[in-house]
């Protein structure tokens, strides 16, 4: 009687091992791609949240200094030293608020810009041409660049508009 050949039945063959490693590698690369997409989506949501927060912040500044609304629309140069020895006038406060706000937007958003204007068609414009027609209600427009969407027809330009009650 012949004994079974046990050497051929011990463990995995090289082909089986190679196939298992290939399947495992494909699974890991799929998980990696999914993680990259999630991080990119989070980044875009963070920029949107920053724009909303900054617009709300400026709206509150304007509400606290509503006597100088015109200087938020047409900002005058800020002179921070003029408010040290004596209280700021509403116009000086508007200039300081706008300077601080625009600095924050430029720091927190890629190619970030913002402005206050009167516009009857608020949901238009971009950073180069905000399309403020001077009519209608007061709006805050925040613009930035989303680098993940450079291939879009708008070259990744993003906008957030907040309408104010004045």
Describe this structure in words.
It is a single chain. Helices cover 45% and strands 13% of the residues. The longest helix has 51 residues, at 14-64. It has one domain (12-163). It has helices at 14-64, 69-73, 90-108; strands at residues 113-118, 138-145, 157-163. The chain is α+β, with helices and mostly antiparallel strands. The protein has a 3-stranded antiparallel beta sheet, covered by helices on one side.
List the helices and strands and how they pair.
Blueprint: H1 14-64, H2 69-73, H3 90-108, E1 113-118, E2 138-145, E3 157-163
Helix pairs in contact: 1-3
Q: What's a quick, concise take on this entry?
A:
With 166 residues, this protein is α+β, with helices and mostly antiparallel strands. Helix content is 45%, strand content 13%.
Q: Unreliable stretches, pLDDT < 50, 5 or more residues?
A: none
Q: Which band does the percent of strand residues land in?
A: 5-15%
Q: Count of DSSP E strands?
A: 3
**Quaternary structure:** single chain
- Count of folded domains: 1
**Cross-sheet strand order for the largest sheet:** 1-2-3
What would you call the shape?
elongated
SSE topology string: HHHEEE
Through-space gap between termini: 102 Å
Number of helices: 3
Mean pLDDT: 84
Largest beta sheet, briefly? 3 strands, antiparallel
**Structural class, from secondary structure content?**
alpha+beta
Radius of gyration: 28 Å
The amount of helix comes to: 40-55%
Keywords:
166 residues, 3-stranded antiparallel β-sheet, 45% helix
